[in-house]
Amino acid sequence: MKIIVLNSRDRFRKEDLKRLDEHKAVFYEQRRTKLEDIKELKSGEDVILGVQPGHIEGVWKGLPLEKIQKYKGIKAICLSTTAFGWVPFEELSEMNIIVTNVPGKSTDSVAEYYVFMMIGLLRKLPNIFKNNWEFEYDKDVMGTDAKGLKVGIVGLGRIGTRVAEICSGLDMEVSYWNRTEKNSSYQSKTLEELFKTSDVVFFTITSDKNTKGLISNELIDSMKKTAVILSPIEEGPYDKKYILEKVAKKELGGFGFESRKGEIDKFEGNVFPAPEVGYYTKQTLDNESEIMTNSMISIIEGNPINVVN
To answer: Which domains does the chain have, with CATH numbers?
Structure first.
């Protein structure tokens, strides 16, 4: 079985490259590579495909089922991402194609980034940025201390737990909602109670068909007018446009998320569309390299790890 990696060698640690080279892994380092340009797929060889989204044509939409079905040699797809909902993993399971992800690679970096965005929203920094740093010391820029505020975590997984830990360290009052029961020292609440009582809400659930529409507009309507929302996840569980409208009308205190473009002037009100670099730290890339390499080699050795389907 051949390992084909759509990624840059520079993103891998030296020790991981050595292991991959021992297995004669082939790298396609050009960004936006087309599947039809991968000669090993044309030859019909059994292939493990390691994929970093930016290195495949179509990026997050680059692996639709109909495209994968054209290549019978694909036996596994090893993603460089924690998220795996961008590939048809359930349908691939029926085709006996293994899909793996890199669990926990960016827990610290993403959690820290979104807490930073929370502080930025509480201090109303987007309003100052959009006004070219010109401001008066009035209620439009007067911020709020994080200490003592109530934080609601929707989804107490790895990132949600780390966000809770950091917020707790800031002397914030942490509660959470999770789909399954958690053995946690934090207070568990219903979604209705969490949204109604929180000053800050983090969306840290998985965005997939099981959570589609989970965070209804009615829940958003129940929030305090001063409350802020932070979302590290793609919309699906929630209506992004509706939240933006609420912030523009000053019916919500703020909204933070990552954006691929410099869109801060596009939105009205206290909206923080931060650069899409939440995950991008040396520690995260080292974790990605190790976990992804382990996943690919585990399939070669017949004991797949980090399988999501």
So the answer is: 2-102+282-300 (3.40.50.720), 107-275 (3.40.50.720)
